[in-house]
Amino acid sequence: MATARPTRNGQDVDDLGAVVRVLEDNPSFARTLTDSATPVAGRAQLVDQALGATGAAARSELKAGLEQASASGETLLQWLRDRLVATAWAWADQAGQLPEVTDQVFGFTRTLLANRDLRWALVDRQADPDQRRALVTSVTASLLPASAALIQACVAAPGGTLDARLRACVEAGVASTGGRLATVTVAHHLDDAQRQRLSSVLTARFGTPVVLEEIVDPAVLGGVRVECGADVVDATMTSRLEAARRAIA
């Protein structure tokens, strides 16, 4: 019999986020927690002493990380960021908000493309960390809490571009629920009924739940292009016109 996944909630996400911020702001504390000269049990006791006001679930995640990521403080911190992302996605899934959260995280990518000043302010590692956190909290205030938590985690994480981190975040979230991510390119926004029909068709085709990432590109004129991993279905008007042009060339 399959083991049920633990129920996640907003408090779990908030508490994990608080732990991540503590380690980000206190690198020496993170190094202390990964000092192999101190037994794991002693470091776990230090977690309880220093973070006693934090929820037990978040402290348990950190203690587990002491065993999983003992190489360095940064390794431990990245492990916790990954756990934060996984917890936020589990919360969204259990709340029935997976499609909405996916749309909002991808929508934030489009917001960054349209606002270069905002992008620069969020990726500027020389800026004051508290100011960056306040900014991302402000610009995500109208989103679902799980969406805001995921975006904030992606902004704080190092490595690669912010766009790449956001996409990897969504891919990991969809995969964790046993689904697949499909990028859908259309000339105009799909309404809810169209999204539901397309999702159902793709789910039947691939044999697993499919979450849609919608990209609006007027250049396709009409129809739809679907990319799901290595599978590509191009039924756009542009591709049909190109096929007809080649046929009569």
In short:
The chain has 249 residues and is of the alpha+beta class.
Task: Give your account of this protein's structure.
The protein has a 4-stranded mixed β-sheet with strand order 2-1-3-4. With 249 residues, it is of the alpha+beta class. It is built from 12 helices and 4 strands. The mean pLDDT is 82. Helix 1 (10-25) runs parallel beside helix 9 (145-156), helix 3 (40-50) runs antiparallel to helix 4 and helix 4 crosses helix 5. It folds into 2 domains: 10-174, no CATH class; 179-248, no CATH class. The protein starts with 9 loop residues before the first helix and ends with a helix.
What's the structural blueprint in terms of helices and strands?
Elements (H helix, E strand, L loop, with lengths): L9 H16 L1 H7 L6 H11 L5 H13 L4 H22 L3 H17 L1 H8 L5 H11 L5 H12 L5 H15 L3 E7 L5 H15 L3 E7 L7 E5 L2 E4 L2 H12 L1
Parallel strand pairs: 1-2
Antiparallel strand pairs: 1-3, 3-4
Helix pairs in contact: 1-4, 1-5, 1-9, 2-5, 3-4, 4-5, 5-9, 5-10, 6-9, 6-10, 9-10
Sheet of most strands? 4 strands, mixed
Structural class: alpha+beta
Sheet with most strands: strand arrangement:
2-1-3-4
Listing every helix as H and every strand as E from the N terminus to the C terminus, the arrangement reads: HHHHHHHHHHEHEEEH
Beginning-to-end CA distance, first to last residue: 60 Å
Q: How much beta, percentage-wise? A: 5-15%
Roughly what percent helix?
Answer: 55-70%
Radius of gyration: 21 Å
Q: Please mark out the parts with pLDDT under 50 across 5 or more consecutive residues, or reply none.
A: none
Instruction: Please give the domain count.
Output: 2
- The shape, in one word, is elongated
Number of beta strands: 4
Mean pLDDT: 82
DSSP helical segment count? 12
